[in-house]
Model the fold of this input.
Amino acid sequence: MSRRNFIPESPGRLEGRALLSGGTRLPGGPVSISGLGVDLTLARIRADFEEFAIGRKLPLLKHELHSILGGVPFNRASGLGQTVAGILGQMESDLQAGAPHAVATAEQAVISTIQAGGRADLAAGRIVIR
Done:
């Protein structure tokens, strides 16, 4: 008798999932995320920018940030991906122009944008930090 292999279903869009799989969506209620999940997300972003500062591989940075932002609740509704893409485009222009601290400025802008969006979602009741 043969056994069927387990094949997991596709998880669907990350838009409906909470940050870093650390949260749950209550029926008709806000997304619940952990404070640790938020801290880990920001730490991953900082690490990705540090890696970029050493290797200067912009496609890798874009890919990593895209994968991180996929787990941020309401990122598409708020246009977070487009905002981050604009910040990275400005960083690339600044680097080509020889501007000082272009990477650090872009890192801070990305983190500030995510934090501002999180505060707005928290104030609107769309997310709850547990």
User: Anything to note?
Assistant: The first strand starts at residue 24 and ends at 25.
